[in-house]
Each structure stands twice: as C-alpha cells, then as structure tokens.
C-alpha cells in the first residue's frame, strides 16, 4: 500500500484533485467536507457530520496516542453513512491527524545548497524525533531563510508514527476512500484563522478531551503543544 504524504503546509499540495474530501475523526464527532477547485479557487461543495453518541456509547477517540476507541470497521461504517446521507460523491480524501498524535519540532541549519538540504534535515531529525526514524513518517518545510540567498535556514519538521498512519490507511480502505494525504490539525486551523497575517499570534484549539496551543509567526506554525 502506498504511504500517504504528510502535509506540512497547504501551500504545498499541488497534487490534490479538483474534488477532494477532508476527513476529521474527532473525539466526539466525525466530520467530512467536500471541496472543489477550479481556476485556482476553492469552494465548499458539501458537508456532513456524525456525533459519536448517535451510533455508539463511546467517543470516537481517546486522548491516548495512537488509540482509536472504536474499531476501524465502526469508523469506516460511520464515514460511509455520512457520505450516503450527504450525497458526497468524491472518494479521494485528506485525513486530519490529532495534534497529540503528531510531533512538531523546529531547528536551524547553516547555509547550504538545495541538494544538501534533504540529507541535512534527515540527519537533524534523528536528534529531535523521540522515535527511531524507521518508525515514523515525516515531512518538513523552510520557515525562514532562503537556499539561493546563502542564509541560515529554520526548518519545521512534522513526524507521525507509522502505527497511526497504518490505522488511517485501514479506515480509508474500509470506507472505500483513497487516502492521498494526512495533515496535522494545527495546519488547517492556522489556515482558517491566521491566513496571511504577518503578526505573531497564539492559536488555541480547545477540544473535547485535549487543548493545543500553537505559536504562529507570519502565518507559519513555529511550535505546537498539546
């Protein structure tokens, strides 16, 4: 099975189709949006939501990392019910990952060439990610500095345990969806609230069982704590 891309920034998703689903498996509710893209503009085509208490006597997810309370089959059944009720036709999907199941870190690198950068990030990742790199999938983006200008670089790295990724792949397959990418919740929240704001700000996400504090500078995530 192909490993989905971990998205560190919405601006870096040129591979998404003209119509795509966004899926959020929250603690108390499961939400699905259907987005379309035409001539560079994005629009909301459809939306569906299902509360956990509607079908089950337990929440969709607990605070524990890597743990979905319900089985993959139950969550997939709930996803199919939302698509059927809301008449959502698209099958390609991006799933959001709870911030407490993701790992964020930032670090600085000296000036280097574009060819040297990936190897340098891999080397630094081993120092910062609390799991062996063989057990995670990670992606990164440049927060500040430019390779062509020969300046120091600040890198944001996002890592997700493969165990978490595998579970989302299983849910997508059972729901008859094509999982094209995964994205930490913080990035979608920042796009919706910070936009192109140049000032520094804190973006808080107060959920049913956890709270995440995100530090945003010039519209980019610099740190995240759950």
Please tell me about this protein's structure:
The longest helix has 15 residues, at about 70-85. About 25% of the residues lie in helices and about 40% in strands. The model has no long low-confidence stretch (mean pLDDT about 80). With about 230 residues, it is an alpha/beta fold. About 30% of the residues are buried. It has two domains: about 5-100 and about 160-195, Nucleotidyltransferase, domain 5; about 105-155, Dna Ligase, domain 1 (2-Layer Sandwich), CATH 3.30.1490.
Summarize the topology.
Blueprint: E1 5-7, E2 19-25, E3 29-38, E4 41-51, H1 52-55, H2 72-86, E5 92-97, E6 103-109, H3 117-128, E7 136-144, E8 153-161, H4 162-174, E9 178-184, H5 185-193, E10 201-206, E11 211-217, E12 220-225
Parallel strand pairs: 1-9, 2-5, 5-9
Antiparallel strand pairs: 2-3, 3-4, 6-8, 7-8, 10-11, 11-12
**What summary fits the major beta sheet?**
6 strands, mixed
CATH architecture of the largest domain: 2-Layer Sandwich
Cα-atom Rg, whole angstroms?
18 Å
Task: Specify the helix fraction band.
Answer: 10-25%
Number of strands: 12
Instruction: Report the span from N to C terminus.
Output: 31 Å
* Poorly predicted parts: none
List keywords for this structure.
Dna Ligase, domain 1, six-stranded mixed sheet, 2 domains, 12 strands, alpha/beta, Nucleotidyltransferase, domain 5, 226 residues, 5 helices, globular
Summarize this structure briefly.
This protein is α/β, with parallel strands linked by helices. Helix content is 23%, strand content 39%. Helix 2 (72-86) packs across helix 4 (162-174).
């Amino acid at each position: 099975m192909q490993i989905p891309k971990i998205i560190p920034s919405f601006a870096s998703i040129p591979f998404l189709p003209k119509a795509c689903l966004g899926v959020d498996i929250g603690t108390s509710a499961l939400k699905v949006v259907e987005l379309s893209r035409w001539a560079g503009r994005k629009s909301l085509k459809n939306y569906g939501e299902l509360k956990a208490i509607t079908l089950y006597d337990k929440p969709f997810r607990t605070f524990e990392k890597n743990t979905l309370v319900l089985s993959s089959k139950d969550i997939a059944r709930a996803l199919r019910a939302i698509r059927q009720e809301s008449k959502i036709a698209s099958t390609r999907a991006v799933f959001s990952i709870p911030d407490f199941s993701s790992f964020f870190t930032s670090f600085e690198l000296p000036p280097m060439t574009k060819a040297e950068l990936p190897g340098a990030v891999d080397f630094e990742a081993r120092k910062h990610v609390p799991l062996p790199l063989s057990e995670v999938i990670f992606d990164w983006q440049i927060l500040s500095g430019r390779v062509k200008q020969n300046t120091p670089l600040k890198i944001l790295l996002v890592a997700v345990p493969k165990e978490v990724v595998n579970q989302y792949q299983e849910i997508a397959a059972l729901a008859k969806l094509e999982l094209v990418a995964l994205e930490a919740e913080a990035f979608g929240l920042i796009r919706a609230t910070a936009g192109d704001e140049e000032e520094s700000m804190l973006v808080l996400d107060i959920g049913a069982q956890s709270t995440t504090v995100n530090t945003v500078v010039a519209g980019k995530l610099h740190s995240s704590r759950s």
